[in-house]
Design brief:
This is Transcriptional regulator, LacI family. GO terms for molecular function: DNA-binding transcription factor activity; transcription cis-regulatory region binding. InterPro entries: HTH_LacI (IPR000843), LacI/GalR-like_sensor (IPR046335), Lambda_DNA-bd_dom_sf (IPR010982), Peripla_BP_I (IPR028082). It holds the Pfam family Peripla_BP_3. Keywords: DNA-binding, Transcription, Transcription regulation. With 342 residues, the protein is of the alpha/beta class. It folds into 3 domains: 44 residues, 434 Repressor (Amino-terminal Domain) (Orthogonal Bundle), CATH 1.10.260; 127 residues, Rossmann fold, CATH 3.40.50.2300; 132 residues, Rossmann fold. 44% of the residues lie in helices and 16% in strands. It contains 13 helices and 12 strands. The strands form 2 sheets. Strands 2-1-3-4-5-11 form a 6-stranded parallel sheet, with helices on both faces. Strands 7-6-8-9-10-12 form a 6-stranded mixed sheet, with helices on both faces. Helix 9 packs parallel to helix 10. The longest helix has 16 residues.
Amino acid sequence: MIPNVSRKRPTIRDVAREAGVSYATVSRVLNGRDWVSPEAVRAVQDAISRTGYTTNQHARSLATGRSGSIAFLLTEPQHLLFEDPNFSVLLRGVAQALSDRQLTLILMIASTPEERSRTIAYLNGGHVDGVLLVSPHSGDPLLKQLVQAQVPIVACGQVLGFEAAISSVSADDLGGGRSAVEHLLAAGCRRIATITGPQDTFGGVFRLRGYTDALTTHGLAVDPAYVVHGDWSRESGAAGMRTLLERVPDVDGVFAASDAMAAATLPVLREAGREVPGDVRVVGFDDSGLAATTDPPLTTVRHPLERISEEMVRLLVDVINGRTPLSITVPTSLVLRASSPA
């Protein structure tokens, strides 16, 4: 005779009993609410592992009207998800933060009209409870469509023109840009150029504003010849550096608004016979893994993406639960390396 080895499916009450907490506490942890102590969260998560509890997602959706899924929506071409190290760091952090809250991650790309159309149709179908919006560009028609879809949204970086409608978590791009240029000024540089990020993004606009603020605060004029615009990529960094050397052959400091652009300036300067940091100091922005591997390693502004990803998920859960949209700014810090030492 074959023994009956089936057993009752573990319930929330089983998890509560195992964790030594109330049913309500387990429910709050499972629903991603924040008014639970870290100790209680760990106890519940450990109890879930021991009991083998799994959420009956269909029953939960019927009861709550929620899908338990969150979209990570990138508005750039899909190849950048793998080429730009910032996106992979952000995606990894978001995935962990959602997992901790028993929420499912759905990756979506919307950089073409066809992709935008499919994205809006999917969101209007109620398949996700909220959207984590990455790399938004002002003027993108998707932004208005997202707001009209009335889905909770938190963006990485403020969305220019939609600040009142879309919550955001941003690095202190203004302060970071200012600190980069003030470092170059303190090192004795006076002919400081910049390669900006896209001017339809919050980071591109405010890192440039940090550059101009630092110069004007120190009594230096902002010369348009010293400013070239890039798109975060290596290619735009190299092209920008060549343009700057044509315009300002005696440039002695460069602030590039991304590490990828900053890294691309180094071989261009080397080919032109300019030593870094002896002749020209270079500062980037991100403190990505790339920064420590260049020759010389990059001084850069640290973009705290791990914290930003956690804050984005926390804020999105709050917005889903009815919180009014708001913006959070996370501080940056300068990391000194050989391309512009102290």
